[in-house]
From TrEMBL:
Lineage of the species this protein comes from: Eukaryota, Metazoa, Ecdysozoa, Arthropoda, Hexapoda
UniProt gene name: Dper\GL26023
Keyword Signal included in the entry's annotation: yes
Signal peptide region: 1-20
Listed name of the protein: GL26023
Keywords: Signal
Length: 194
């Protein structure tokens, strides 16, 4: 009885002592990187969404009242400030670009309005710059993370490099949903939320 009490007390002391030291997360570098990418993506998508909303409102001012574009996109423009989810922003951007092309750029009766084309070209150029900056930031951060020493890097290097390359070589924001799914599955796979 005496020995079992000493044993129990010793174990309790050791457990409390060792739990006071933080054990490093085995995939700390990767989780840190995933968190950075998620934040960067969200900021880029917010910026793209806001710029699309500005373009949409400017186009509505130029177009005749109750135009097809206005009717189609007005609901989306009204909700853009409340649309902060990753997937919702992607959906908005895809619908917006499609409807702008369909109802404005593809509308022959609006050819006499070169301002609408100019506004779109400026938006397209700014959007490309935002995506390019986001990609270069993520790529630089990825290289930095890859060069950090980590016992577990070899485990994820091939898998992660493949997904990163797919993401980096996409041509527009349509690539975001794929990488978003990869991000969320990886955060779970590597226990990043724990």
């Amino acid at each position: 009885m005496h020995y079992s009490l000493i044993f129990t007390v010793t174990i309790a002391v050791l457990v409390s002592y060792t739990s006071s030291f933080s054990i490093p997360h085995p995939f700390e570098n990767l989780c840190e990187f995933l968190k950075y990418v998620e934040k960067d993506q969200h900021e880029a998508l917010e910026s793209l969404t806001q710029k699309a909303a500005v373009l949409g409102r400017a186009a509505i001012e130029i177009l005749p009242k109750n135009s097809s574009f206005e009717e189609y996109i007005k609901r989306d423009l009204d909700s853009v400030n409340n649309t902060q989810g990753f997937d919702q922003m992607i959906d908005f951007l895809n619908r917006f670009e499609s409807s702008y092309n369909r109802y404005i750029l593809g509308n022959l009766s609006l050819e006499s309005q070169p301002t609408l084309r100019l506004l779109y070209n400026n938006w397209d150029s700014e959007s490309s710059n935002i995506i390019e900056n986001s990609n270069s930031n993520i790529s630089a951060r990825f290289d930095e993370m890859r060069n950090k020493p980590s016992e577990n890097w070899s485990i994820v290097k091939q898998e992660y490099s493949s997904a990163s390359n797919v993401y980096m070589y996409r041509r527009d924001y349509d690539g975001h949903p794929f990488f978003g799914r990869y991000l969320y599955s990886d955060k779970s796979k590597y226990y990043c939320d724990e």
